[in-house]
């Protein structure tokens, strides 16, 4: 990682540093490149679900196989996500991102040659393990590229464009299902996209350095920021941060993750649409998700000014309630019309997209800069994965006896309301945790000034 020369230091720096923090070099180019990397992860996660009806017909599979395929693809993230974050600390975040995408491309292409479910399961799992590191590393770089007041907007654009692009890629890939062994071409396509994303990172990404966007540290060089070395003990200390622990629990209760796994299968099996017709809803879902993330980023910034340190909490809580309400009407009634489902999927996408502009900045605000890579790895690849795996395996098994509609009622509606109730605890601990991080960074600044 290259260190920028340190500008003249000033003991008045929080104000001066704030101006400099908002001007981290290459931040918008970084955001665009990182969006491309995460499109790969997002598309891969939904690809099996999109193509599964065709894969099931070719390999004689059932819904339970989809649950196993999706679950193992996520379970592997539990060790792989933190491992990639650790590797990024050793070889640099840029090199780690290149490695994740190129390895994922190789395994994705190999998965397209699978002759049975076991081969597909192994290769798809290896592809997931390879590219899962992109998301936590990307979120850490974004947190270092944008200061706290801008992270909601940055996260909104990041996740909005990611979902928008992948929502168009998935239906295009679904068109392969109309030809013999078309799902293989889908796997080969996603493998090629992985490799392309890796090349773009190599050519265009510029890592700003850990802590570059913090107003207390912005005018210090990377060496002067005095970030302690990341250890197992320091990573374990994340769970002593009350707000972080609540966010991890909330991730375990995030039933809305199930819609991307079983949404298409629900429309095919329970509502009688063909695979290609059902996949149409992915476009309005992506448009809705984009509106929720991009618009949500601006709304979070507004609420932060009106209700400092609590506005984003209220926003996140409201997003859970909104999702539950929309999901109830979208999944518990039969409308016999793909246009109506498309409208509901757009609203579901909007409600789900409302989350990243608040939950990512909340995590970043309560965690010290050097630990954010591991914090996001735990948040996005460990706890999200545990929840996703439980939902996938449980839903796959229960769907055979109860039906996907009944499973959706409990996970997309009831569990999301429970999630909203749990988030109430953030009103009490989040402001204290944010203040603790600010105080620590200010102490580091003063130490750097005395040593300069």
From TrEMBL:
Cellular localization per UniProt: Membrane
TM regions (residue ranges): 68-89, 96-114, 120-142, 154-179, 185-205, 249-269, 275-301, 313-332, 375-395, 407-430
Domain Major facilitator superfamily (MFS) profile: residue ranges: 30-434
Transmembrane helix found in the keyword field: yes
Bilayer topology: Multi-pass membrane protein
Entry keywords, A to Z: Membrane, Transmembrane, Transmembrane helix, Transport
Region described as Disordered: 1-22
Keyword Membrane: yes
Pfam families: MFS_1
Protein name as it appears in the record: MFS transporter
Species name: Paenarthrobacter aromaticivorans
